[in-house]
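pls read this stuff:
=====
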Amino acid sequence: MKLYVVDDDKNIQNILKMIIRDRALGTLCGIASNGADALEDMPVLKPDIVIVDLLMPEMDGITFVKKARTLLPSTAFIMLSQVASKDMIAGAYESGIEFYIQKPINSVEVETVVRKVGQSLSAQRTLMQVQNLFTSQQPAGIQPASPSSLSQERPHIVRLKGILQKLGIIGERGSRDIIQLVDYLVEHNINIGEATLTELCSNFSDNPKSVEQRIRRSASAGMVNLANLGLEDYSNDTFTTYANTLYNFEQVRREMDYIRGKGSRHGNVKIKSFLNALMVACLEP
């Protein structure tokens, strides 16, 4: 993956450069201190992922992303900012970014997000290759579904994917199962306490045990990511929002102690409580 950084702060540039290099996240193909210079580089360098600051002089990050996406629509954008305003964050997502990371920079969060965005890009490109192959083999008169119709998703699915992105598990195989299960519960207005997880999974899979195992692994991975975020920045917005809603905070603290070598046991995830909290969160207006 080729990465490009747009930030007017030299310290942030250097920190991102070290994270990309030390954690082998890809090739840093360019750095710019402002949006105008970056827009000149985009068509030549063709980065896969652009990490851009929200607040920059002359051209803010949202304006930059809107312009850059017209040049390279298949490039993914990750935005950085100290701003915690919900309206600003919503505007950033509306401009077309994949993920929003709040400063100060957390190396674990940056690595997790970049890897997941990279995996998502690879999956999208593979899908496009398959769709192109399918289109080329279509009989005359049959039109494939347009990309816009395929990309239209219901609001609760969009919100659910955003939460899974923040947990750093959107690229996990189990995340697709989580999305499918939560969607099934929402669409059929089912109380998750009325059946076992295996019974629920059997409604949309011939191998419910495997689905259940993937969901458990992904939920546990989300707790590990949250624990790491908490260790690096206890006030991290993602950590404070989800450590005590999607998970039991005492169990997240246990996972943090395990990571620091102060405990012998991992934190425990109550899967049905996790899924129920996800369902509630993605239905919030």
User: Anything to note?
Assistant: The radius of gyration is 20 Å. The mean pLDDT is 85.
